[in-house]
Amino acid sequence: MSIEWSDVLVDVLNTTPVVDGANTDLLETDADARDWLRAHAGDGTHIATARRVRDDLQQVVRGHADAEVLNRYLARVRRVPRVHDDGLDWELVAADWPAQLVLAWGEVQSIAPGRLRPCANGECHLFLLDRSRGGTGRWCSMSECGNRMKARRHYSRTAGKAD
Ligand SMILES: [Zn+2]
After folding, report:
1. Which residue ranges does the record assign to the Zinc finger CGNR domain (predicted)?
2. What total number of domains does the chain contain?
């Protein structure tokens, strides 16, 4: 089974949704966090570190912290060269769950800079990895925030005309 770490990255960024106007945290209790981590390629341990890397990644993606804060999660990452008939590959031999997320963030930054970003709805705490061709995606989801924000703009336009 191959894990798409960029998907896990988006999922962990989106563990603090606003539900009915209230901030929530899917990793709030240890029991919830353990289940969530196990469902997302973790082993359900090191819950405090999982919350910390989530918080740091959110701050970095929102532009509220420098990416350097993420280096602390990479201290124990190790790659070793492996030769084979076609040449040489670097294989990741030691990277824990937080490190995998930070590596995924770095890869997204390299391949698709700026594509991982907060939802443009200021009242929404979710993030999106914009995979659209033009890179113009603004909402965590069109069915949720996209339509809501469009309806609001339409409403304020028509309300403006009535004056
Ligand atoms: Zn949203």
Report:
1. 115-157
2. 1
Tokens 């973790």 identify what position? 42
pLDDT of residue 163 exceeding 60? no
Cα 125 to averaged position of ligand 1 atoms, centre (Å): 7
Distances from the Cα of 139 to the Cα of 46, 51, 116, angstroms: 31, 24, 11
Q: How confident is the model at residue 134 (pLDDT cuts 50, 70, 90)?
A: confident
Q: How many angstroms separate the alpha carbon of residue 94 from the centre of ligand 1?
A: 35
Q: What is the pLDDT of residues 105-132, one digit of tens each?
A: 999 999 999 999 999 998 999 999 998 8
- Expressed in angstroms and rounded, the spacing between residue 70 Cα and the centre of ligand 1 is 25
The CATH number that applies at residue 24 is 1.10.3300.10
Q: How far is the CA of 90 from the centre of ligand 1 (A)?
A: 37
Rounded Cα–Cα distance for residues 4 and 103 (Å): 12
